[in-house]
């Protein structure tokens, strides 16, 4: 994961404007009084647009807490968990364990919003060639949501090359 952290810290640039469903539009689905955990928040862009955001990220110090999901220890549960492109790296087993942990931070009845990479190594920044992307599928969403006590509310393509999903924790 060292390569992933270095890539995001040194090369990657955040741009929510290109995403139809998993960008700024998400704010229209979240009430101001709801609490949000932003997993892999990058430059923590939702922090200035919503009152109750806590962002974690292992690479970018704009996060409220500079930590990976693996090392994030918290007993809080949030109304909304955002996972917008951050659990896309490594093997299926690694991503599955990260998904399970992300779900554990969502309260019952809460929602998890996802932006998932189907395995495209298509970022335009230096260092991307060292990154191993996990190839998310629609089937992964339905299988893991059920396995971890959630239901898939919506799962569709966002901008043609990313999967947008909304899960509700049961």
Protein described:
This protein is α/β, with parallel strands linked by helices. About 20% of the residues lie in helices and about 25% in strands. It has three helices and seven strands; from the N terminus they run H-E-E-E-E-H-E-H-E-E. A seven-stranded mixed sheet has the order 3-2-1-4-5-7-6. Helix 2 links the parallel strand 4 and strand 5. The longest helix is centred in the middle third of the chain and has 13 residues. The termini are far apart. The mean pLDDT is about 95.
Largest sheet: 7 strands, mixed
Low-pLDDT ranges? none
Order of helices and strands: HEEEEHEHEE
Question: How far do the termini sit from each other?
Answer: 31 Å
Mean pLDDT comes to 94
Q: Helix coverage percent of residues?
A: 10-25%
C-alpha geometry = globular
Beta-strand fraction estimate = 25-35%
Number of helices: 3
Structural class based on helices, strands and sheet pairing? alpha/beta
**What value does the Rg take, in angstroms?**
15 Å
Strand adjacency order, main sheet: 3-2-1-4-5-7-6
Q: How many beta-strand elements?
A: 7
């Amino acid at each position: 994961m060292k390569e992933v952290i270095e890539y995001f810290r040194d090369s990657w640039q955040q741009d929510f404007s290109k995403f139809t469903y998993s960008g700024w539009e998400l704010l229209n689905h979240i009430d101001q009084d709801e609490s949000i955990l932003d997993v892999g928040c990058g430059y923590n862009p939702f922090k200035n647009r919503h009152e109750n955001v806590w962002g974690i990220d292992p690479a970018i110090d704009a996060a409220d807490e500079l930590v990976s999901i693996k090392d994030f220890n918290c007993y809080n549960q949030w109304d909304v968990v955002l996972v917008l492109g951050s659990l896309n790296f490594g093997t299926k087993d690694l991503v599955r364990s990260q998904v399970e942990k992300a779900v554990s931070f969502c309260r019952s009845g809460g929602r998890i919003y996802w932006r998932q990479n189907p395995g495209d190594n298509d970022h335009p920044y230096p260092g991307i060639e060292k990154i191993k992307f996990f190839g998310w599928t629609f089937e992964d969403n339905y299988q893991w949501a059920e396995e971890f006590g959630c239901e898939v509310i919506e799962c569709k393509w966002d901008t043609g090359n990313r999967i947008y999903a909304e899960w509700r924790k049961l």
